Amino acid sequence: MTVHQEIAESLARNRVEFVTTVPCKQLAGVIEIVEDDPRFIHVPANKEDEGMGLCTGAFMGGKRACIIMQNTAIGVTINTLTTLIQYYSIPLPMLVSYRGEVGEKVACQVEMAVHTKALLAQLNIPTYHFHEPEAVKDLDSILNHAFMAKKPVAILMDAQFWGAA
Amino acid sequence: MIRSEIIKSIAPVIRDHLVVCNIGLPSQELFMHEDKPSNFYMLGTMGLSSSIGLGLALVQRATVIAIDGDGSVLTNLGTLPTIANNVADKFILLIIDNGSYGSTGDQPTYAGRKTSLAAVATACGCENVVECRAEETADVLREAILSEQMTIIVSKCESGNVPVSVIELDPAVIRHRFMQEVAKRNA
């Protein structure tokens, strides 16, 4: 099974039914799966803060939701993470393509990569870094943790994890 | 008619439905005119009322009315294509368009100048778009609810505000009682 399939299976096992995405090259495989898999309602978003609004509505409607996005989105969504997701205690797993790490081919991506963990730490968001593909086995317990705690959590998945390094 | 009067006029139409209400004065006015546990008040995060409303409408059976403003829709303009392409039959987006940022001192928005939000919504692919005068809002909204077809309403009104207090409910309380209402309607 590819890591893309393993991620989708873990989401389904943890009763995540609503997924919103903003694409990244590294996420193409998992986005394709959630689009085609009838276990998920997939709503592509134009911007990640919009996606977090969609997830908030879906959660209040009784469905577990998650967002799949690139780490550049941390810069876009700080206000939404604090004044909506954290303020109203909305559980939100963020599956994050961690661009700009070793193996990156686009220099500009490194500029946001160097701030990603610091921003998440500043926001008190539990953060997990998947470097080796085997790390995907931890996703079940991290998803469970996010829904238990009713908090946003970030799972940073770098180029080595996706097999692109 | 100003926004506060529209909100007062639609209170009897929306009271039995799930309502997601925009940040600032709109939420404060709705809270003042008729507080209900089925109202989700946004205390922050400008622009996401329509997104929260759509997410909610896509996953459960009850009618959802998102009350938004022209300024908030402009700040999250990407919401309109998402709404158009992910149809939820019982979703109504009511944009109260007073051509200004009411909560911050009535600075003009582009919707009060050359930009037509009804035309933008149509161009984005929204199928039922109704632009109406402020006085017609309650009737148009009532019809949209009965139609059970996703509808975008742009209610054109005058700029202006009335004094209101801030909402002192805790966000967790707002969310909790709102989710209980959602669950009740889907039992």
List the helices and strands and how they pair.
The complex is a heterodimer of chains A (165) and B (187).
Chain A: H1 3-13, E1 16-21, H2 28-36, E2 41-44, H3 48-60, E3 64-70, H4 72-86, E4 92-97, H5 107-122, E5 127-130, H6 139-149, E6 152-157, H7 159-162
Parallel strand pairs in A: 1-2, 1-3, 3-4, 4-6, 5-6
Chain B: H1 3-14, E1 18-21, H2 25-34, E2 39-41, H3 49-59, E3 64-69, H4 70-75, H5 79-85, E4 91-97, E5 100-101, E6 107-108, H6 117-123, E7 129-133, H7 137-147, E8 151-156, H8 171-185
Parallel strand pairs in B: 1-2, 1-3, 3-4, 4-8, 7-8
Antiparallel strand pairs in B: 5-6
Largest sheet of chain B: 6 strands, parallel
Strand content of chain A: 15-25%
* Number of distinct beta strands of chain B: 8
Instruction: Detail the poorly predicted runs of chain A.
Output: none
Instruction: Give the radius of gyration of chain A.
Output: 14 Å
**Taking strands numbered 1, 2, ... along the chain, how are they ordered across the largest sheet of chain B?**
2-1-3-4-8-7
Number of domains of chain B: 1
Please, could you describe this protein's structure?
The complex is a heterodimer of chains A (165) and B (187). Chain A has helices at 3-13, 28-36, 48-60, 72-86, 107-122, 139-149, 159-162; strands at residues 16-21, 41-44, 64-70, 92-97, 127-130, 152-157. The relative contact order of chain A is 0.17. Chain A has a single domain (3-162), classed as Thiamin diphosphate (ThDP)-binding fold, Pyr/PP domains (Rossmann fold, 3-Layer(aba) Sandwich), CATH 3.40.50. Chain A is an alpha/beta fold and 165 residues long. The mean pLDDT of chain A is 97. In chain A, strands 2-1-3-4-6-5 form a 6-stranded parallel beta sheet, with helices on both faces. Chain A is built from 7 helices and 6 strands; from the N terminus they run αβαβαβαβαβαβα. By secondary structure, chain B is α/β, with parallel strands linked by helices. Chain B has a single domain, classed as Thiamin diphosphate (ThDP)-binding fold, Pyr/PP domains (Rossmann fold), CATH 3.40.50. In chain B, 42% of the residues lie in helices and 19% in strands. Chain B has helices at residues 3-14, 25-34, 49-59, 70-75, 79-85, 117-123, 137-147, 171-185, and strands at 18-21, 39-41, 64-69, 91-97, 100-101, 107-108, 129-133, 151-156. In chain B, strands 2-1-3-4-8-7 form a 6-stranded parallel beta sheet, with helices on both faces. In chain B, helix 1 crosses helix 2 (25-34) and helix 1 (3-14) runs parallel beside helix 7 (137-147). The longest helix of chain B has 15 residues, at 171-185. The interface between A and B is medium-sized, with 33 and 35 residues.
